[in-house]
Amino acid sequence: MTEVADQAEQVGAVAAAPTPVEVYAARTSGLRKTYGDTAAVAGIDLAVPRGAVVGVLGPNGSGKTTTIRMLLGLIRPTAGSVELLGHALPDEADRVLPKVGALVEGPGFHPFLSGRENLLRCAAMEPNLASQDIRSAVDEALRRVGLTAAADRRFRGYSLGMKQRLGLAAALLVPRELVVLDEPTNGLDPAGTREIRQIIAELHAVGTTVLVSSHLLAEVEATCTHVAVMHRGTLVAQGGLAELLESGGPHLMISTSDLTAGLDALRDNGISARVEQQALRVDLSEVDAPEVLATLVRADVGVHEARRGRAGLEDLFARLTEEES
Q1: What domains, with CATH codes, occur in the chain?
Q2: How buried is residue 304: exposed, middle or buried, by Cβ count under 10 Å (0-12/13-18/19+)?
Q3: Which tens digit of pLDDT belongs to each residue from 279-295?
Q4: Rounded to two decimals, what is the model's pTM?
Q5: Which residues pair with 275 in a beta bridge?
């Protein structure tokens, strides 16, 4: 889309390769938040690489939103530290927050004002937006989230999905170095969800770092480059999505006309395998694919198809959260 090219010029510094000191867009150390005797977040070390799209996953009550609120300086941690775009929070919040767009726990706007009027008020408070550019920035943000036709309707008459769109528009009024979205597809229909996915892809294309909290694992798998999995206030895993999925059990799925002979041949040679979905599933943690296929060929077992598989995000999420239960 044209906005990708337009924004690339405006955020050139963001798209450039980060210096060693600026590898992370957000980082926490020993971050902790307690309410009475309850630890909502129990000492996590979160690292969000610059330019990445990071999905924060976790069951309800796992501490996702509390962590995001501390990252943005909305609440103070009980212990630990937060660094955002190279600046310590909350002490340097005024220097860094204008570079951050956020939609957290649903948008809050004036109910008797229209969507456009609400955005104009938000835009007037943007330190990096010149007065003469406010109206065009608002129009572009409304167009981008698909609210142009409803821009002059009162906010109180908006559906949940429309309210989410307006909140996202406010986060995108100016180019940002970091965009934080807490359940951005809440209340959206499938078409709206696809549009949010497209916006995230556009942000990623121009080098913007995106942090997304979501319970929709399929959406995270489709849009994110990295994931962080939280459970009961702790961080149980974080890293590149591909690497984490690979760690969940690389395997080979082999289609053959003789499952029994194939299974016997593999096990006779010390290769872990089982029958799954009318195919042989072979664990690749201690053997490589060529050796597996060579073993079957030597045993005169015909191989019709072989494809490399890996655990899906749903499997990985279930394994991580169950292990920590």
Answers
A1: 2-245 (3.40.50.300), 250-309 (3.30.70.100)
A2: exposed
A3: 898 888 788 889 999 99
A4: 0.75
A5: 280
Query: For residues 63 and 66, what is the distance between their CA atoms, to the nearest angstrom?
Result: 5
- CB atoms inside a 10 Å sphere around CB 229: 25
Q: What is the pLDDT of residues 173-184, one digit of tens each?
A: 999 999 999 988
DSSP E strand boundaries for the chain: 24-35, 38-44, 47-49, 53-57, 79-84, 87-89, 100-103, 178-182, 209-213, 226-231, 234-240, 251-256, 273-276, 279-283, 303-309
Where residue 85 falls (left for φ over 0; alpha for ψ -120 to 50; beta otherwise) is: left
The pLDDT of residue 15: 38
- Rounded to the nearest 10°, the torsion over CA 303, 304, 310, 315 is -110
Place of tokens 């190279």: 86
Compute CA distances 102 → 72, 177, 249, whole Å: 8, 11, 35
- Residue 306 structure tokens: 């072989």
